[in-house]
Specification:
The protein has helices spanning about 1-25, 30-40, 50-95, 100-115, 120-135, 145-165, 185-195, 235-250; strands at about 145, 165-170, 180, 195, 200-210, 215-225, 225, 255-260, 265-270. By secondary structure, the chain is an alpha+beta fold.
Amino acid sequence: DRTAKYLILASSLFSLLLVIYAFLKKKQIDPAIILSIFACLISFFFYYDISLFFGYGMLICSIAFGYWADSLEEQRLYPETLLKSKRLEVELLKKNIQPHFLLNSLISLIDVIEEEPQEAVPFIQALAKHAEIVHEISAKASIPIAKELALCEAYLTLMSYRKEIDYSLIPINIEPQSSIPPGIFLTVLENGISHNKAIGGKMEFSISFDKHEDKESYSIISSGAPRKHQHALKDGIGNKYIKARLEEFCESGNWSFHSGKNGLGWQTEIVF
């Protein structure tokens, strides 16, 4: 049957192209699948019935085995993933509701009440908003960017009172409903404040979004003068937290993270 023959040839060639594409993308490939496809192709020249049924039989068996192996791997990794998620949740709470953060905020509040009583209410509102959002997002693997930006705004308001520096946040081309891991922008802002000195009592943070083909990238720049002791940085708690969240959010290895000095101050690049 010529029609059936061409259909089998087309499907075999298409399957071979998929395998080549997976190889170029550095995906793991079961050798049995390659052997199966070649067995199907050989059927057009030698031993049609035997090689065709052998090829498709191997193909079905290898796919079934692959699903079974993936299922076992998921079952094996699930407790570890669950534990990791809980650990990240606790780490986020520790980083943001830890005693010294709250204590420093309350000490700053006392100064505000004594020097500028009219500013005490927005300070308390920002502190309450910050705590509310952290409590809401800590257990989630991803949140809308709008929620993350609200957390960043509350944090910068608090830090403006505490350090008496005018911190501001400028989103550029941000899609509010896009999802990101919770707390990563906040952690980048914390790093920016740690690594940069304000100029003229002001520090500006910009968060810009760009999409190219199948990649989404975020660039966070904190304007200011980099501190002199900031050279090659080792991973601190903040960077480790960001990388752990990205690993949880994306497929393994399907992300990149870089942070360091640039001409404008301190720049962080995150790519999904």
